[in-house]
Amino acid sequence: MLRQSPFGFAISTFIWIYPTLLQEFWWRAEAIFQGTRMWIRSTVMNSVIILSEETLRVALQLNDGIDATFFTSETLDQTLKEMGYHTPNRPMQISRSGFIPPYQYLVTQLSVCFSRKHGHFNELSYRLMEVVHAVVQDKPYNFSKFLMRDLEANMHTHKPFLIYPHFVMKVITSQLDFGGVTNWYPRA
Predict the structure, then answer these.
(1) d(CA 115, CA 156)
(2) d(CA 1, CA 56)
(3) Is 108 helix (H, G, I), strand (E, B) or coil?
């Protein structure tokens, strides 16, 4: 189910994560606003890197160039019930252990990819359930907009943390010009 999803390439391809490059990206990052659009510009290895919905869409091969889709709490609750999760009083956080086994794996994988790492390890937010709902119900969803909302919020923190390292690293490596050098990465 995950490999056939719109972000199957993004979560199934292997990429080396280099914390020094990510730290350099976030250390030099600045938010650029033009009307309602926002992107992040930084310099890594003397190359300008642009992080936007479009660069995420291209680097992660997402087929989500649609307006953001938001699902009502009723549709999310219905999906939760279909996944074997019972919510008698609609909690703010959803426990991964409340799902039946096939969905526990799916929810765990999606939360690893799309979670901002706030809250307890075993909890999901209703916002993250939008992603789960889109995958389970095979509904169109703008994953790059979801990621950019979190990246923008990350820019407004006092000290940005290394959010979505796998996805950001894909964007960085897709934009770096290595000049034919294959072993460009820093050695430990």
Answers:
(1) 18
(2) 21
(3) helix
* 42-76 pLDDT tens trace: 999 889 999 998 999 888 888 776 665 678 888 88
What is the maximal distance between C-alpha atoms in the chain? 58
Contact 104, 92 (CB under 8 A): no
Closest by Cα among 109, 104, 51, 46 to 80: 104
Virtual CA dihedral for 16, 65, 5, 71, nearest 10 degrees? Answer: 120
**3-class secondary-structure state, position 93:** strand
Q: Which residue has the tokens 């479009």?
A: 54
Element (H, E) at 38: strand 37-44
Query: How many residues does the structure list for the chain?
Result: 188
> Could you tell me the residue ranges of all domains in the chain?
8-65+143-175, 73-136
Q: Give dist(CA 128, CA 116) in Å, integer.
A: 9
pTM above 0.70, yes or no: yes
pLDDT tens-place string over residues 69-114: 678 888 888 888 888 886 555 556 677 778 888 888 888 777 777 7
In whole angstroms, give the CA distance from residue 77 to residue 80.
Answer: 5
